[in-house]
């Protein structure tokens, strides 16, 4: 029986379920997806702190870690893959499927952890828990356009940088679904924000944001045969809405930091400007937002990413 403290998984299609991973104790924030096929497949593990919520969700759909054939992480940021080693220890028959650039970080997460500490400092362990390495022989790399058969489905993997260089997306053509991680924006449901509407915005990660790569990724994905985007944060949106909103706001983010950047700019300066930008964009859509600080779980990181991007861009351009 599932512990009542954990939310029930949501059936997305006949045999695909979303598990709320309760990231940082928050509902409707981060989700994993379980494909119940001949070879049961999990997409995203969340952080180590989400381990109990993940196990409860698997149990609720009739699975144990030992049933999993594949554990897929779209990219190796801790809120997506930090708990992979912990789960793999309980799933001895499973393979961990990663982007080529992610393999070394799953086998030896020391640099991944050090990078997270540069961003989160002393809060890192409290936010995410620890990280456990995965034996390299249990890691399966999927290159761009390679496939993986899990039963009636053949999953296809696409290199999808822009949010992170180590990011792929996963197409299930039979379901007309793209498992997008963070590559096609973040979907903010009303249950998370308290706003009377859902909306989508991009995520400019602290060291990898690249608006040109975002454009290239979205152009590629637009040509693929799917109707729905399954976001890690959080839930599903229509393909054209996810692509269009992510593209527009990624451009707006880049233009904004280019306009306001100075060498002594503070993170808080950018946070305040991002709040205004997102609020103004929503107003133009006829949507009236409420307290924008509810978005700061992402906006603060977005600000760090934009400052890093603009500083690097100006440096590379002389």
Question: What's the quick description here?
Answer:
The chain is α/β, with parallel strands linked by helices.
Describe the structure.
The chain is α/β, with parallel strands linked by helices. It is built from eleven helices and 15 strands. The chain has helices spanning 51-60, 78-81, 84-88, 103-107, 110-120, 124-128, 190-193, 211-222, 239-260, 267-284, 296-316, and strands at 10-13, 16-20, 31-35, 41-43, 70-72, 95-98, 139-141, 147-149, 154-159, 168-172, 177-181, 186-188, 199-201, 228-231, 235-238. The strands form three sheets. Strands 1-2-3-4-5-6-7 form a seven-stranded mixed β-sheet. The chain has a six-stranded mixed β-sheet with strand order 8-9-10-11-14-15. A hairpin with a 2-residue loop joins strand 1 (10-13) and strand 2 (16-20). The radius of gyration is 19 Å and the shape is globular. The mean pLDDT is 94. Residues 29-233 form the Metallo-beta-lactamase domain. This is MBL fold metallo-hydrolase.
Percentage of residues in DSSP E strands: 15-25%
Going across the biggest sheet, name each strand in turn. 1-2-3-4-5-6-7
Query: What's the domain count?
Result: 1
Relevant CATH superfamily: Ribonuclease Z/Hydroxyacylglutathione hydrolase-like
Structural class: alpha/beta
């Amino acid at each position: 029986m599932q512990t009542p403290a954990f939310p029930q998984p949501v059936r997305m299609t006949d045999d695909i379920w979303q598990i709320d991973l309760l990231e940082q104790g928050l509902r409707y924030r981060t989700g994993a997806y379980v494909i119940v096929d001949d070879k049961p497949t999990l997409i995203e593990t969340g952080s180590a702190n989400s381990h109990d919520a993940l196990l409860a969700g698997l149990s609720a759909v009739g699975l144990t870690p030992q049933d999993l054939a594949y554990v897929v992480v779209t990219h190796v940021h801790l809120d997506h893959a930090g708990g992979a080693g912990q789960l793999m220890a309980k799933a001895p028959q499973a393979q961990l499927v990663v982007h080529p650039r992610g393999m070394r970080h799953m086998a030896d997460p020391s640099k991944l952890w050090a990078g997270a500490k540069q961003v989160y400092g002393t809060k890192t362990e409290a936010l995410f828990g620890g990280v456990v390495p995965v034996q390299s022989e249990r890691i399966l790399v999927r290159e761009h356009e390679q496939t993986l058969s899990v039963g009636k489905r053949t999953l296809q993997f696409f290199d999808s940088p822009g949010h992170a260089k180590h990011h792929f997306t996963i197409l299930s053509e039979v379901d007309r679904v793209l498992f997008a991680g963070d590559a096609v924006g973040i979907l903010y449901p009303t249950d998370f924000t308290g706003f009377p509407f859902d909306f989508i915005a991009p995520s400019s990660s602290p060291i990898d944001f690249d608006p040109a790569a975002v454009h290239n990724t979205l152009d590629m994905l637009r040509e693929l045969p799917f109707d729905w985007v399954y976001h890690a944060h959080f839930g599903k949106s229509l393909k054209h809405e996810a692509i269009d909103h992510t593209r527009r706001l990624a451009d707006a983010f880049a233009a904004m930091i280019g306009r306001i950047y100075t060498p002594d700019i503070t993170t808080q300066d950018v946070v305040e400007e991002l709040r205004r930008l997102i609020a103004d964009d929503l107003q133009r859509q006829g949507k009236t937002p409420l307290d924008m600080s509810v978005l700061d779980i992402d906006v603060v990181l977005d600000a760090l990413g934009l400052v890093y991007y603009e500083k690097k861009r100006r440096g590379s351009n002389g």
